[in-house]
Please model this.
Amino acid sequence: MLEKALTGSKRYYGWMAALLVVIGVGFVCYLWQFRFGLGITGMSRDVSWGFYIAQFTFLVGVAASAVMVVLPYYLHDYKAFGKITVLGEFLAVASVTMCILFIFVDLGQPIRVMNVLLHPTPNSILFWDMIVLNGYLLLNIIIAYKVLEAERNNVAPAKWLKPLIYLSIPWAVSIHTVTAYLYCGLPGRGFWLTAILAPRFLSSAFAAGPALLILLCMIVRKFTKFDPGREQIQSLAKVVAYAITVNVFFFLCEVFVVFYSQIPDHMVHLQYLFAGVHGKGVLVPWMWASMILMVVSIILLVNPVTRKNETVLIVACITVFVGTWIDKGLGMISGGFIPNPLHHVNEYVPTVPEVLISIAVWAIGFLVLTVLYKVGITIKEEIAGLV
Amino acid sequence: MNRYREWRMRMTNNKKIYDKGMVIIGLCIFVGVITFPFWFNLGNAAPAPEPKIADKAKAAKECVMPTAYMKMEHMQLLNEWRDTVVRDAKRIYVNSSGNEFNMSLTNTCLDCHTEKAEFCDKCHNYASVTPYCWECHIDPKETK
Amino acid sequence: MKSSRRKFLKIAGVSALGLGAGPVLDVLASSGEHEATSTPEIKKGKDALTAKRWAMVVDTRKIESEEDLKPMIEACHKIHNVPDLANKNHEIKWIWLEEFKHEFPTQEHEFVDERVKHLPFLTLCNHCQNPACVRVCPTKATFKREDGIVLMDFHRCIGCRFCMAACPYGSRSFNFRDPRPFIKETNPEFPTRSKGVVEKCNFCAERLAVGKMPACVEASNGVLTFGDLDDPESEVRKLLKANYAIRRKPALGAGPSVFYII
Model:
């Protein structure tokens, strides 16, 4: 089936070529980083995790959101989603691939990465992260491939797929919970040491992921002969509406706990993010932008008039995606590290090579996504006799 | 039966090889490229390396382990030393002849084998091996 | 033949397995042959200092100014080949000085007496009893030894920096680039580190192994005392019995082993 990705329109080839150029540039930057060390990034002794890990955290959420399509269809027989489960699972595959790549480019000694398997350490959450991420990748590849193949051959999917699909549902929740557990169990980082971190991660994931899926469905509808369906998109939009509302509510809970208790150690991180501390506040405009975007998206998505209008829906999905990306992909990491355990403020800004490498990893993800979608959509077109 | 399945039946029942000429040319090029290392240097093998034993090492007569063992397994021995020193806090190695050695690459091995370039590097360069030990462990000659 | 491509791939796979099995079995068979005739022994040096729970007491009453503490930092950084990097973002420090309000933020208040307020405090890895860094390391490259020292295995570290995120005291440094060009004077007896690994104070485990006190303790002129907390007769126990001492962030439960007599 993969051979379907090798042929396409001029626009398709152009898109793939552009992605390959971006990947090439980032790859060269990575070679530089591999030789020189992580010093070419903006990370420092105080902010020892940066853009790469932030992207990883955000994308684990997007990957987990496939469950929002799989669960209604397989557990609750919501037939409409049957059309797009494969699209959700392929998005999960592309996202997990990016996650694994982001971790890899972040390592100081990447050639020793197998040490995590050679010396298994069950008390380390990073060990479990490796297991659940790779497991989820494998699960989704097998499930999506086999379901698509069965669709093409006009037969029911093999019986042994069902338990795997049922497994993928709690597994999806687990990948993002494990990622949250990386942060929320660290005694020295007050900003992350909160029980609500895992629920907040999941809620922002279930907003960002389906929002991206909606945008992808719109693109598929525009550029191919396959229409994911208006009902499907509206159902996804409702999921995003609830998820983004819950996410903002969870955030306001954190704000209350921190500021009503007036504990300086806890307040200072949110103060740094939203007002700046000791005159340093490079992220302040970003964080406020993120809040405004998320509130705007709640208004647009909860209101059925604006949600049903597909043009406004596109805007809403973009605001959800960008808002949650800033929140998780920029604010969360810096907020946790700054001020440092000794109450010094040393800010973090990613460098150009760091951003280029990150864009290249995103491009690899989109390459994988495009290939998988091309295969999936072409097959769906053929089945429907549209080609 | 859907269109795909019809197409597949037609393809598998039809025994033609398409583009036979191109396929065979491609295969020949592939075989040539993949066997390149075997035939390119035929007859021009570099001579076997001859590591020079430093004077201090000659005077010591016996290494930590017998020479044959060291030739084959010095890396395994070093790995054992590394894990024991770092992780078990034990630094003395008593070999089968009862001699005691401090388990240290720089301070024991290179103490006798003083010329890394003449000894270690000779075989390593021949075999194209670059052990990353030297990124951290110091060759005493470098710092002088 | 029904599906010839699939059948070809199956045959190819089985052949590859078959061809690969032979050499693998050979290697496995031969690896058992190299048992030495009489098994070598591994043991501690006779001078090695041992303890159940190494700890350090810093008597800040004996400190007048930075000048008293600089020799300790010099001693440590010199014998351990700690590089001196100009870029503060990439700096590596095993032991350094902090003000009271940074060292003990939970004890800080408006009316701290002038002497303590401006006193420099020696900051280093606390070699905790319940170290968060050990808990999170995915490869056990950071591990706690039986004698209480939290050590780094630089060979195993993959540079994920999870330990740096976990440490509540900010004791750890990462090699953002090759440190060698920045080492002023190399000590050939101790290795350097390479880029991409995390490092921190190691309570001079290599000196303890040959019967010496840690370099900072030796250079401290009595300010620092090092000993076994498990031994009721040790200097550290005597000091703690006679004087009130505090530790950094005790409420976090990490169990730091560095005590400060104020």
In short: Chain C has one domain: 54-261.
